[in-house]
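Every protein is a chain of amino acids, and every chain bends into a shape of its own. The protein below has been through that process, and both of its lines are reproduced in full.
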Amino acid sequence: MKSRGGTGKCIRIVVVDDYEPWQHFVLTTLRRHRGFQIIGEVLDGLEAVQKAGELQPDLILLDIGLPTLNGIEVARRIRKVSPSSKILFVSADRSVDTVKAALSTGARGYVVKTDAATELLSAVKAVLAGKHFVSATLFACDLVGREAG
């Protein structure tokens, strides 16, 4: 996968999740694909905002339930410090209200963790292409502004 503009530059990604075994799964999955460069691994909400501002990643994979600051507030703050970064939520929370709140931050996608083994890479590619992505298990929900993944 090439970066914007087809320059051949790697897509720079920050992964934010406080559950280390899960973070390891995500990192392993992403590292199997050329063109993705993990530039940050963050366990905490406030640190995620700081790293986003410092590193200006192309993509941020963001959990909802984080220490110090929840993922929805993290996404709002990241919009201010790194407005060009695309955000993809990856969370165990499948509440319709939570998904709507997450997407209302300007995030481009939401993947339920139980679906990540089959959907994570498709979601990453869709979000990087400027599309929306919502896990298939959430399709029955009335999600405003969602597009099929």
About this structure: The chain is about 35% helix and 20% strand. The longest strand covers residues 36-42. Residues 115 and 143 are 18 Å apart (CA to CA).
